[in-house]
Amino acid sequence: MGGSYGSTLRYKSVQRLKPIGKHTLLGAGGEISDFQEIVRYLDELILYDNMWDDGNSLGPKEVHNYLNRLMYNRRNKFNPLWNTLVLGGVKNGQKYLGTVNMIGVHYEENHVATGFGNHLARPIFRDEWHEDMTFEEGVKLLEKCMLVLLYRDRSAVNKLQIAKITEEGATISEPYAIKTHWELEAFKNPATGAVGSW
Amino acid sequence: MANTAIELPPKGGFSFDLCRRNEMLAKKGVQSPSFRKTGTTIVGLVFQDGVILGADTRATEGPIVCDKNCEKIHYMAPNIYCCGAGTAADTEAVTDMVSSQLELHRYATGRESRVVTALTLLKSHLYSYQGHVSAALVLGGVDCTGPHLHTIYPHGSTDTLPFATMGSGSLAAMAMFESRYREGMTREEGIKLVCQAICSGIFNDLGSGSNVDVCVITKGQKEYLRNYELPNPRTYVSSKGYSFAKGHTEVLSTKITPLKEHVKIIEGDAMEE
């Protein structure tokens, strides 16, 4: 939930997960103002779709394609929207999770991450993700990764939200903190062996 | 005529005389040769009886893998081992040098080497070279004061930690450690976690690969398990390997040239052995 300004943790309550239409959830890393622009574009897209009033609504695949075109075109004009977007949704029983990047790289995967998550969380996902996890197992896995990121990413804050999207709709939880463990014996007096060093 | 310049004796350390020339050449488009780096994932952790070190075995030269099965866990003393990441020449030279210094010290003192001795020798050497000796090390060992694990950075700073990772695959390995490390693990649990961390580096980092080396150091005993795990075996299509029997390849034409006619024997002595 943190919004940094260079090395300052300027905003501590930035919501970076937004529901789009009935079937999709969008999350972003990178430049927050560009994310707000993207949300504005998508609001317009959903509005026009609703105005058709034809009973059909844009699903995650369609939104993903739109975002991909948007990001790639901006990149071609040398004016990118500096974000890594994570898009998830369910439509007609079909689950979808994909990502679009500021240069237009896009793909569908069972687990995606932005920023440092690519280096720290992806290895854990690749090892521990499996088909047909329950919601609780999924949240537990995500919290495990967020804990590692909290320990090892300097721009992380201990305030996170879990968003869930199912056929019924999207729910975004209230912000909460995860428990960190600092009671290791070795941390109590680390340099006893090497006096004068760290 | 008199000599204008006095020959100064060479001072120790790096000579930066050619830097200007190299910059000029680089501007003109000459590519400098790439050096062999150990892309790498190296890890260490402290368990209940001592220290376990782990490393992958891939050495890279730019984008190419130049050694598929190199040894990154270097011997320092009978009770101290050191994993090295960074430029391969630097890690080997620095660990060899400190290893011989430790041996001389052992003869002088008559005692088992301590990990802090190796730590201080390494860090003061690396600091004096201001980071130009590109060696990032994970030093572990057990001495009379107990088990110790340290990381040493190329500029000479050190950390004393219960678990540590270095190298390009350090984030992938650290993700495994941070989520699974507990204090007071047994030997089996420790080795398993070290393997998981190295495998995480091998499969998620492009600079690391091939096999897993493990080194377990306990009081009075060390076990160097070279190629403890081989998660990337060569899988041949045929279990017997390849065989090219006669008749597999179509022969288009045959020309036999007997060499005896062309070799003339001139008077002379036979070649000496």
UniProtKB/TrEMBL annotation, chain A:
Keywords: Nucleus, Proteasome. InterPro entries: Ntn_hydrolases_N, Proteasome_alpha, Proteasome_beta4, Proteasome_sua/b, Proteasome_suB-type. Pfam families: Proteasome. GO terms for cellular component: proteasome core complex. The keyword Nucleus applies. It comes from the Eukaryota. GO terms for biological process: proteolysis involved in protein catabolic process. This is Proteasome subunit beta. It comes from Picea sitchensis (Sitka spruce). The lineage of its organism: Eukaryota, Viridiplantae, Streptophyta, Embryophyta, Tracheophyta.
TrEMBL record, chain B:
One of its GO terms (cellular component) is nucleus. It catalyses: Cleavage of peptide bonds with very broad specificity. It is found in: Cytoplasm; Nucleus. GO terms for molecular function: threonine-type endopeptidase activity. The active site is at T40 (nucleophile). Pfam families: Proteasome (PF00227). Component of the 20S core complex of the 26S proteasome. The 26S proteasome is composed of a core protease (CP), known as the 20S proteasome, capped at one or both ends by the 19S regulatory particle (RP/PA700). The 20S proteasome core is composed of 28 subunits that are arranged in four stacked rings, resulting in a barrel-shaped structure. The two end rings are each formed by seven alpha subunits, and the two central rings are each formed by seven beta subunits. The catalytic chamber with the active sites is on the inside of the barrel. Component of the proteasome, a multicatalytic proteinase complex which is characterized by its ability to cleave peptides with Arg, Phe, Tyr, Leu, and Glu adjacent to the leaving group at neutral or slightly basic pH. The proteasome has an ATP-dependent proteolytic activity. Belongs to the peptidase T1B family. This is Proteasome subunit beta. It comes from Picea sitchensis.
